[in-house]
Design goal:
By secondary structure, the chain is of the alpha+beta class. The protein folds into 2 domains: about 10-210 and about 330-415, Aminopeptidase (3-Layer(aba) Sandwich), CATH 3.40.630; about 215-330, Alpha-Beta Plaits (2-Layer Sandwich), CATH 3.30.70. The chain is about 35% helix and about 20% strand. The chain is built from 12 helices and 16 strands. The strands form 3 sheets. Strands 1, 2, 3, 4, 5, 6, 14, 15 and 16 form a 9-stranded mixed β-sheet that branches. Strands 7, 9, 10, 12 and 13 form a 5-stranded antiparallel β-sheet that branches. A two-stranded antiparallel ribbon has the order 8-11.
Length: about 425
């Protein structure tokens, strides 16, 4: 579909490098956190580029940027694509940014060729995908798709007590459009780096993303009793020594939750707090987070059951109290089979080695898929490294992803014929 449109891999790469200068770090990454002055600067650059490619911009009340090129048939729903420009504090140049600037390259190429699509084309930069400064992540797409209310998003505070809505207004990106209007787009496609190494290990250029894994996040509290570090070990009710075998069991449970296709579960303990946090006191209280994910919702539920059973057994054996509380759940999210097929066909037609795969990571596309036909495209990243200043991809991988995205987008929007 995109063979006659002058897509430029070199221009895409140049744009990625130019955007990376905004918030660039000494180690070669980016620190362009949401609703900062640097975020505003990046948004203005994207606006200038997109308007030069014939787009008009609207901004909604949670700051989502929408850059639209009209189609010939105004009754057709827009075909949207994009991702996010915000980064982690020690983020890379490509996470999110690739999807936005690959979409920009499509708009530039269509504009230069004078091509008219039947449906409008729409590039979206979602607000606060990362959740690094304001938690939780994916607030812009979540508010647009009704996962969060506008009121709760605008009231969120960062660790310094600054309020989301006030910071959005301060940097000049609080718009007037209704974010719920984005539920009416006709399709959404998102290109992203894999943030894993399956594609690189398999020697594939393109990941055809078929679904998002179900996620179940828990919070565990272990309550014991403080004891002097010089006291006898016998009889201690050390909360940390009870937490340690439970954490080890969580990894074992995930690896043992193997689906019919041979895929095990995934589990991460990413945060842990110790009280009273003294070198010579056996802790009386431990709190830690548990992030579990699986492509089989039944096995995901079984993982939670086994974690709770293990906690009960350890608590009884060690004389402590362990509470396992539900924190957040995201259901298994299949992507639209028609759009998935278009991505697969595009990769095949363009000669790129590809494979079907799920995403185990949250993206704006996962929230959008609850309301709108959606799919994702992955390209490799070196070593699977992401959320890291050393995150890297090749220009060839970026171009392959962009060309597959363009082909699927234009096949969905339709090229107007005189």
């Amino acid at each position: 579909m995109a063979t006659n449109v002058p897509l430029s891999g070199a221009r895409l790469w140049d744009s990625l490098m130019e955007m990376a200068k905004i918030g660039g770090t000494a180690k070669g990454g980016c620190n362009r956190q949401t609703l900062t002055d640097l975020d505003s600067e990046g948004r203005h650059l994207l606006q200038r580029w997109a308007e030069a490619a014939g787009c008009t911009m609207s901004v909604d009340r949670v700051g989502n940027m929408v850059l639209t090129r009209p189609g010939r048939d105004p009754s057709r729903k827009a075909v949207a694509f994009g991702s996010h420009l915000d980064t982690q504090p020690t983020g890379g140049k490509f996470d999110g940014i690739l999807g936005v600037l690959a979409g920009l390259e499509i708009l530039r190429a269509v504009h230069e060729a004078g091509v008219e699509t039947e449906a409008p084309l729409m590039l979206i930069n979602w607000t606060n995908e990362e959740g690094a400064r304001f938690s939780p992540p994916m607030m812009g797409s979540g508010a647009a798709m009704g996962i969060f209310t506008e009121e709760e998003v605008l009231a969120k505070q960062d660790p310094e007590g600054k309020v989301f809505g006030e910071e959005l207004a301060r940097i000049g990106w609080k718009g007037a459009a209704d974010p719920a209007a984005l539920r009416d787009i006709g399709a959404y496609l998102e290109l992203h780096i894999e943030q894993g190494k399956l594609l690189e290990d398999a020697g594939k250029d393109i990941g055809v993303v078929t679904k998002a894994l179900a996620q179940n996040w828990l919070e565990v509290t272990v309550e014991g009793e403080e004891a002097h570090g010089g006291s006898p070990m016998a009889g201690r009710r050390d909360a940390l020594m009870a937490a340690a075998p439970l954490i080890a069991a969580i990894e074992r449970i995930a690896l043992g939750a193997v689906s019919a296709s041979g895929e095990p579960g995934r589990a991460t303990v990413g945060r842990l707090t110790v009280y009273p946090d003294s070198r010579n006191i056996a802790p009386s209280r431990i709190w830690f987070s548990v992030d579990t994910r699986h492509g089989d919702p039944d096995l995901l539920a079984k993982m939670a059951e086994e974690i709770r059973a293990e906690a009960t057994a350890i608590a009884a054996a060690r004389g402590v109290r362990i509470t396992v509380a539900d924190f957040w759940y995201s259901p298994l999210t299949p992507f639209d089979p028609v759009l998935v097929g278009r991505v697969r066909d595009a990769a095949e037609r363009l000669g790129y080695p590809h494979m079907d795969m799920p995403t185990g990571i949250g993206h704006d596309a996962v929230y959008v898929a609850r309301r709108v036909p959606t799919t994702m495209i992955f390209c490799p990243c070196h070593g699977g490294l992401s959320h890291n200043e050393a995150e890297s991809i090749t220009p060839e991988w970026a171009e392959a992803g962009m060309r597959v995205l363009a082909d699927a987008v234009l096949a969905t929007a339709g090229i107007a014929k005189d």
